[in-house]
Design goal:
This protein is mainly alpha-helical. The protein contains five helices and no strands. The longest helix is centred in the middle third of the chain and has 26 residues, at 46-71. The radius of gyration is 24 Å and the shape is flat.
């Protein structure tokens, strides 16, 4: 009867490395939040957190739309350009004083027109 004494390969990162690889983005977000909250007195205030959420809403909607496009297999990289064109038309309408309704319709119309041509 012989016994083999071969060394088992060891995972250099171990459990901590696997945890970091799997959850790198949330860990980085928490670390950034802690650093900013410690270095800037106004960062962790409810008003600032609300401002960050408001500014991130359009990116969230775009990300959700792109997720659906990727899931159904229709990867379309022009979505960012269409959003930019629609936002430009909307902003121009607001600067010209045409009102919120015209800005919204212009933005939707721009997106629909570019989408139809694409």
């Amino acid at each position: 009867m012989s016994v083999s004494l071969t060394a088992q390969p060891r995972d250099p990162g171990g459990r901590l490395g696997a945890l970091m690889a799997r959850h790198a983005m949330p860990i980085a977000a928490v670390l950034l939040f802690v650093v900013f909250a410690l270095t800037a007195s106004t960062f962790g205030t409810p008003a600032n957190i609300g401002n960050i959420v408001r500014q991130s809403a359009s990116v969230l909607v775009l990300g959700l739309a792109m997720t659906m496009a990727v899931l159904v297999g229709g990867i379309d990289l022009s979505v960012g350009s269409v959003v930019l064109a629609s936002a430009t038309v909307s902003g121009a309408a607001l600067v010209m004083g045409l009102g919120d309704g015209v800005a919204i319709l212009g933005s939707i119309g721009t997106g629909a027109l570019v989408g139809a041509l694409n």
